[in-house]
Amino acid sequence: MNSSNDKEQDFLRKEQEIRAREAKIRLRELELEINQKSEQSNVDIPHYHTRKHDESPSSLKKFSKKMIKVGKFIGFTVFTITLMRIGFFLGMWLAYGLITVAIIFIGYQIFMSDSD
């Protein structure tokens, strides 16, 4: 009984070793293919002269960019406040109108309707 388990374990271990070897061989093959492709494609890639990006714009440009951002923010804020005030104004008049219509309707029901 013990010898059959040993044989099974030995068989499984050998099978795992074979799979590991096959995986290593396949990885080497893939690596060789990739290296060959990259060597072939390196010939076709044009090389361009690079230069350092000028990262220090003048203080006037920085100031003007900041002022543009501040102006956009202020404009957006004024527009939003104006839009809210218009909305509140229209809403207020709409509420006045609805209240007036409700009062007139109640007065009509009380005073003008026929009570049979």
Q: Summary?
A:
With about 120 residues, the chain is mainly alpha-helical. It has two helices and no strands. It folds into two domains: about 5-45; about 60-115.
Largest sheet composition: none
Overall residue-averaged pLDDT value: 86
Q: Return residue spans where pLDDT drops below 50 for at least 5 consecutive residues.
A: none
In DSSP terms (H or I, runs of 4 or more residues), the helix count works out at 2
Q: What count of structural domains?
A: 2
Radius of gyration: 42 Å
Helical proportion, percent range: over 70%
Which structural class should the secondary elements be placed in?
Answer: mainly alpha
Distance between the first and last residues' Cα: 108 Å
Tell me the series of helices and strands, N- to C-terminal. HH
Residues in β-strands, percent: under 5%
Shape category: elongated
Keywords: Coiled coil, Membrane, Transmembrane, Transmembrane helix
Transmembrane segments: 93-111
Coiled coil: 13-40
Task: Describe the structure using short key phrases.
mainly alpha, transmembrane, transmembrane helix, 0% strand, membrane, 2 domains
